[in-house]
Amino acid sequence: xxxxxxxxxxVQGDGKVLLETKHARYEEVRDFLSRFAELETSPEHLHxxxxxxxxxxxxxSSGMTRSEIVDGLREWSxxxxxxxxxxxxxxxxxxxxxxxxxxxxxxRKLLRLEFSTAYVAKLVGQVKSVKExxxxxxxxxxxxxxxxxxxxxxxxxxAGWPVEDxxxxxxGDPMPxxxxxxxxxxxxxxxxxxxxxxxxxRWFQDGRPAGGNGVIVLPCGAGxxxxxxxxxxxxxxxxxxxxxxxxxxxxxxxxxLDKTSLTAAQVGAYTGxxxxxxxxxxxTYQILTWRASRESKFAHLHLFEDQNxxxxxxxxxxxxxxxxxxxxxxxxxxxxxxxxxTLVREDGREGDVFSxxxxxxFDMAWQTLEESGFIAxxxxxxxxxxxxxxxxxxYERAREGEKFRLAAVNPAKLEVLDSLVxxxxxxxxxxxxxxxxxxxxxxxxxxxxxxxxxxxxxxRDVLFGKFRRSEIKLxxxxxxxxxxxxxxxxxxxMQVSGSFGSRQEEAQRLGRVLRPKKxxxxxxxxxxxxTKEQEFAMKRQLFLTEQGxxxxxxxxxx
Amino acid sequence: xxxxxxxxxxxxxxxxxxxxxxxxxxxxGGGSEGAPETQVAAPNEGGGDGExxxxxxxxxxxxxxxxxxxxxxxxxxxxxxVRPRTHRKKWKPTAGLAxxxxxxxxxxxxxxxxxxxMPETLVHALYxxxxxxxxRVGEQERVVQLTVRALAQGNRxxxxxxxxxxxxxxxxxxxxxxGGIAHADDFHRELVLMLGGREPDWARTMxxxxxxxxxxxxxxxxxxxxxxxxxxxxxxxxxHLGAELELPTFQHEDIRVVDQRPFxxxxxxxxxxxxxxxxxxxxxxxxxxxxFKAQKExxxxxxxxxxxxxxxxxxxxxxxxxxxxxxxxxxxxxxxNREVVEEWLTLEPEDQRDLMFRALEKRQAMAEWVLWAxxxxxGEWVPEAPLMALYRRWKRxxxxxxxxxxxxxxxxxxxxxxxxxxxxxxxxxxxxMGVWGQQKVYRLSPRGTALLDPPEDEGFSKxxxxxxxxxxxxxxxxxxxxxxxxxxxxxxxCDRANxxxxxxxxxxxxxxxxxxxxxxxxxLREYSQIGLPQNVESTLRAWMGGDGDVEFHEITAITxxxxxxxxxxxxxxxxxFIVHRFGPGLYAVDRKRLPEITLALIExxxxxxxxxxxxxxxxxAAQSRERLHMxxxxxxxxxxxxxxxxxxxxxxxEQLHPIVGSAVAAQQKRRDDAKAPPRANTPEVxxxxxKALKGGLGVDMIYHSLKDDSRRQLLVIxxxxxxxxxxxxxxxxxxxxxxxxxxxxxxxxxxxxxTDKKAGGGP
Lengths: 558, 763
Hints:
The complex is a heterodimer of chains A (about 550) and B (about 775). Chain A contains 22 helices and 23 strands. Chain A is of the alpha/beta class and about 550 residues long. Chain A folds into four domains: about 10-95, no CATH class; about 100-165, no CATH class; about 195-365, 3-Layer(aba) Sandwich (Rossmann fold); about 375-555, P-loop containing nucleotide triphosphate hydrolases (Rossmann fold), CATH 3.40.50.300. In chain A, strands 12-13-11-14-15-10-16 form a seven-stranded parallel β-sheet, with helices on both faces. Chain A has a seven-stranded parallel β-sheet with strand order 19-20-18-21-22-17-23, sandwiched between helices. A five-stranded mixed β-sheet of chain A has the order 7-8-6-5-9. In chain A, helix 2 (about 55-60) packs across helix 4 (about 85-95), helix 3 packs antiparallel against helix 4 (about 85-95) and helix 8 packs across helix 9. The longest helix of chain A is centred in the last third of the chain and has 15 residues, at about 530-545. Among the domains of chain B are: about 1-100; about 260-360, Arc Repressor Mutant, subunit A; about 465-530, no CATH class; about 550-605, Alpha-Beta Plaits; about 680-755, Roll (SH3 type barrels), CATH 2.30.30. With about 775 residues, chain B is α+β, with helices and mostly antiparallel strands. In chain B, helix 14 (about 265-280) runs parallel beside helix 23 and helix 17 (about 340-345) runs parallel beside helix 29. Chain B has 32 helices and 23 strands. The interface between A and B is medium-sized, with 33 and 36 residues.
């Protein structure tokens, strides 16, 4: 076994690749790896990538060859690269392109399948899950219905046959516009960062049929909206954007008008409050999945068909609801762009996102952006608080199901919160929680405004606006503020309670304070010591440390 | 180049000068040696640039000129002063460094002692072969001295071998591969099998070797005899027979490696990892002492990078751990003896290797030597046939040795096995087998290479402890660190870098295994490349709590954490319990009062540990450790080169004989005859005896014993001539060797002469 300890990589037999981040040539190796491996975790000093068939096929689709990958791995690895991995790379990459999906020359409703050899055609024909989708077009070719494009690719992928999709996309109605050089809002020049440009390019693939769909993973505050705007500009066609809530919809509309030549007449919101279908339409997932009763049909799914969309953007794609999955499967003919900061689904359906929206096209460690100054340097603190006034006894007596809530709303947290608020009295502080009673009490205690799900949209906008302008220094919010709220000046977040161990929630809440700022950001999680809350906090801690954040544990004295 | 040559010449000149000084002193040169010393040294230095000016006439002329220039002439002894010049010429080395003595003083003495015990003819033959003239040297001691000196100069022996026919060298090489001992007839057949030819031809070849003094015989026994190489010659011969002894190699790009595993780490890595796994998931055994199927599947899955299911590699690991007491059966589960594992892991690499070889020996005899032989090919493929031939010779050598010691001189024809397999070593993963067409080839696997040549430092001294409680430990890390990591963290992956995860349960287990809070944190801090992340330290402290600040020890000792020593020692309530203070934090207490002490400590606000520590932790573990060392001692004993092992016992110098049919044998016979008393008929014998009786002299005689039909040379002191029962005349005499008074039939005395040994005097 040949050992080169000075190299930065350890390639494991299961396709996991460990990369030393303090290595002198880290950046070079990271850029190399990111082309064919997926970043799994990025704790300080050692990042973990994973080589999947999917990532290899993506690499192959972008023109990367087997020898390029193998030579690179051999060059950078501390140990000999496992032969299994080399074999996997070779076999997987060679499989790409054996099955191609092209437009049918005669029938626009069909997509023709092209096989590299008759043997491949025979093998594909034996895949049970795929067989039912295949039709013969009467010219000795196999084909699939245009509506089955997504599901066919998904099933083929599962069977180990990556399809090279050369069928292209349905061209939407044109929507010419340009990106502004100066932003309307603040008059500052509008510049696109390198990674934003790279991610849009990797998604677009110079307009080749292989591009035009996929997911971009960037941390909160890294400017995913801008990536989408650049993608829209590249396509120049009517666009449907799906966002998480009304506030996010408004934010999208604001950003598009701020940074593009599109006018208010061309950009419309489609929410519970207003239903405007324009060239660029921003809708919520909620409205799409609304139905009068469980037996009724989804009343607004027609939105996908109302216009000849050239691009559909899925904001926070990890939240894509199940009915939209179904609709998306039939939208495979249209270009699709997914945006997320945390491609983590608590239901484990990340794979479906990739299959239906498209593969991960770009990913960047949060730490890297932090070091580049594109997002704030964040410090995470877990403040452990004890019980007070018999709280521990009440906790012990409580039923299992109630224990988490009891620990989350531990009154002793308020005293610790006092000291934290005092410490950050000059900062823009968000206090985030899950339990409304607790939040009301906190709002009363500090005489601060509170935003919950019951707060009307316009009211929310007013309060967020005031917070952005620093007219309010302390804002108490429930989980409605978890996603897509751009609060550039917030630099301190205090989480008094959370939803069990939700990693996604933790990352999103942290994301609220990640807009770049001079003094960095602080994210406090108050948890009750030696309770279920601490157990769940451990999961969240693991997630954040895996993302590369500095995590400190402090003992808070009540 | 020229610089090197000059340096070599300088060294030679210096060493040569010292030797010459010694020679001259022995000759009684005394005070007149100052000038020649300078004279001799000068040309030697000049000889350093031999590449530019070849040695020979020109050089000799320069030498002569030097002497003449200094007015050399006749001295009182009548010998030419230039005489040293001829010696100088003879000694002149082909390369300066070759003249350096290779043996230490002790080795030279040992060698001399050996040759002193050897029959003179054999030493003479060897000396003659090395270029000496024994007839011109009077004393046997001096012959031995010169022979040793010649051997110490390696070029004399290499010259001898160089002059020999290739067949002779091949036969000698094969004999050495057999361990330096071979039954003559069987050996001829082995040579025929290997090199072709006819047995009588090979017999003649061996006689040639015998005439060179390199090969001896076991003695003139009619049934057959054994070829023996004198033990002190083995090492120098090995050195100079490199080409004949080395295994051929084979290369082809289409060689297919059979059953190659993706990851083949050093055994200590995989053993430490397996021990950790077994410690964390104690396997349950069936009644047939096999690991339960489901658990075995888990195990195989976990170690999939290292071995395939049902692989012999796992069995090797398991047997090794079991054999050395590192794991043992407790109830129906396998438990790990951590102390023994740690002990093993901290042994010297050579000792670890010896134990491993011993385990391999159980699977394949002489496994170690097979590995060394393959290793000599330096990573190249070794074809099966020559390797098998070599192995066969080792096996036959062993067999011949046993038969020699049992004094079986007859050859059991047809009992020899010709083919052997190395599949056991291949299955154990220390050898790799390649296939090219019908050809099988072997080389060491990375595991085998690491076993023979353990890398001292692979550049990994620390692991990665990341803030998400994961530890990544690369395979080059010290295995003892890996094992200790396994005590404090859950092993979740075995690969080029093992992955561990610190969990609350793993920390709880670590405390039970005797880790202390600060010790554990210090360990992580010290060996983590990036130190101990704050969140990990905080969490670990919370998990470990305050237990263990004060710990009870078996016998009567307690320890106090350094943070509490002051308080502990200042408390009056505790003082009565302290029988003795060994030092700060370590105290002896009355064992019977432990409950009282515990209560007092709690009342004083301290946190006494719940567990009582025992030393040694476990009697069984201590025994197992002892057993490990015993096995190690045995393994060390076994670790001996078969060639060397063969020699010491077999080639006792006194028992070496010339080979029948060789010139040396004939010479020996002549010598023996010359030494023996003259032949005499019965009246002459009687006259000699009477003369001896009268003069009180001893008698040296050859007596023919009818009992065993042997002839013995005896030295006796005659006492009287008498008649036996049959009326035959007998000599009653004292045998000086045995000290017995015996009677000898005069008719059976074949040779006799008087000696000056007086009656009553010793021989």
